[in-house]
């Protein structure tokens, strides 16, 4: 008898850098890209958060809302196309990964798979 994998419930975060008149269409394409990735994986998308062309400060605010949902055990993690869509520098990328991990969740990118910081003693 085959054992069923536990489903990991995640929010997809959609973010593109484009002119405002093209943002919705490109975010829809990004959503299809993410859905295609999770089709044969243990992840299930249970919600969507869209950047809608807002600033990096708005992305950070939305990110904190997602981290709060993870802390409250409403979702298990977040899926993005790649880290460059949610951050513009390496330090901020590590901070975002650490925030999700500290909240007890996971972060998955379609391009790189599951991301984690392997630190001992924390």
Automatic annotation (TrEMBL):
Q: Which residue range or ranges hold the Resolvase/invertase-type recombinase catalytic domain?
A: 27-113
Stretches of the chain forming a coiled coil according to its record: none
What Pfam families is this protein classified in? Answer: Resolvase
Any one GO molecular function term: DNA strand exchange activity
Q: Which domain of life is it from?
A: Bacteria
Spell out where the chain crosses the membrane.
none
Q: What is this protein called?
A: Resolvase/invertase-type recombinase catalytic domain-containing protein
What is the organism field in this record?
A: Agathobacter rectalis
């Amino acid at each position: 008898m085959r054992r069923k994998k536990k489903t990991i419930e995640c929010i997809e975060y959609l973010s593109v850098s484009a002119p405002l008149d093209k943002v919705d269409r490109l975010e829809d394409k990004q959503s299809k890209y993410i859905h295609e990735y999770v089709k044969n994986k243990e992840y299930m998308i249970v919600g969507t958060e869209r950047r809608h062309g807002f600033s990096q400060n708005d992305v950070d605010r939305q990110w904190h809302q997602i981290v709060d949902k993870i802390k409250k055990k409403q979702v298990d993690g977040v899926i993005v196309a790649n880290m460059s869509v949610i951050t513009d520098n390496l330090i901020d990328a590590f901070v975002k990964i650490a925030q999700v991990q500290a909240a007890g969740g996971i972060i998955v990118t379609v391009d790189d798979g599951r991301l984690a910081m392997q630190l001992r003693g924390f």
